[in-house]
Amino acid sequence: MTGAIFDVDGTLLDSMPIWEDVSVRYLKSLGVEAESNLSQKLERMSVEEGAAYIKENYHLRKSEEEIAAATLKIVEDFYYNEAPLKPGVREYLAKLKKEKIPMVIATSSVRLHVEAALRRLGVLSCFDKIFTCSEVGEGKTRPLIYEKAGEYIGGDFRDIYVFEDAIHALETAKQAGFYTVAVYDPSAEKDWGRLQEEADVSVTDMRQLMAQ
C-alpha cells in the first residue's frame, strides 16, 4: 500500500442513520409524530422533494424552503456534535499514520461537515487532503474524484487502497484501477454480497485490517 483513499459516511463515520431519520427528527421537533415508514418513503427523494412531501402530508404552514433548511441544519448539528467513528477506525488510522502511509478523503458530503466531525473526533490531522464530489464536479458514479485523489498521492493506482461502503462507489474505484476495500455498513446490507464479490478485500470492522 502506497496510499489510502477513504470515504466518510458509512466508512469512517457511523453517520448513515442521520440521513435515514432526519425528517423524523424534524417533525418531532415540531411536536408532530411521523408515520412509521416515513424514512423509506423519503429514501430516494432529494431534500427538496422530501420537504415538499412533508409540507403536503403533514399540513405544515412552513414553506418548503424553510423545511429543507431546517432538516439540513439537523444534519449539520449531527456532524458537529454527534457523529461517531465506526469501530476500529481510530486504531487503523493510527496504524497507517505510524507507517507514514499518505491518507486522503473522497466524500460526497459537505466539506465543513466532514472537517467538523473529524476534528471533534481527533482524527482530522491523519489526512493530507479532502476531496469532495461537489468541488470536483462529479459524483462517485464517475472516477474523477478517485483519480484526483490518486494523482495527489502519486504512484500506481493499483497500490492505492480505496475504502468504501457503497457498491456504486466501490465499483467506480475498482474500474479506475484502484485496490478496493469494502467496509460493511447496515445501511448497505442489501448490497453486502455484491460488495464482497467486487472488492479485493471486505471487512466488517477495520480492526480486521490491523495485521496486514
Instruction: Tell me the major beta sheet.
Output: 6 strands, parallel
Mean pLDDT, as a whole number? 93
Alpha-carbon Rg, integer: 18 Å
Q: Which class of secondary structure composition applies to the elements? A: alpha/beta
CATH topology label of the largest domain: Rossmann fold
Named at the architecture level, the CATH assignment of the largest domain is 3-Layer(aba) Sandwich
CATH class descriptor of the largest domain: Alpha Beta
What do we call the CATH homologous superfamily of the largest domain? HAD superfamily/HAD-like
Order of helices and strands: EHHHHHEHEHHEHEHE
- β-strand percent reads 5-15%
**Total count of domains:** 2
Number of strands: 6
- Helical stretch tally: 10
Detailed description of the structure:
- The chain has 212 residues and is an alpha/beta fold.
- It folds into 2 domains: 3-14 and 84-209, HAD superfamily/HAD-like (Rossmann fold); 16-81.
- Helix content is 47%, strand content 12%.
- It is built from 10 helices and 6 strands, in the order E-H-H-H-H-H-E-H-E-H-H-E-H-E-H-E.
- Strands 3-2-1-4-5-6 form a 6-stranded parallel beta sheet.
- Strand 5 (179-183), helix 10 (192-198) and strand 6 (201-203) form a beta-alpha-beta unit.
- The longest helix has 18 residues, at 64-81.
- The relative contact order is 0.17.
- The model has no long low-confidence stretch (mean pLDDT 93).
Write the layout of secondary structure elements.
Blueprint (H helix, E strand, L loop, with lengths): L2 E4 L9 H14 L8 H5 L4 H12 L5 H18 L7 H10 L4 E5 L3 H10 L8 E4 H4 L7 H10 L6 E5 L2 H9 L3 E5 L8 H7 L2 E3 L9
Parallel strand pairs: 1-2, 1-4, 2-3, 4-5, 5-6
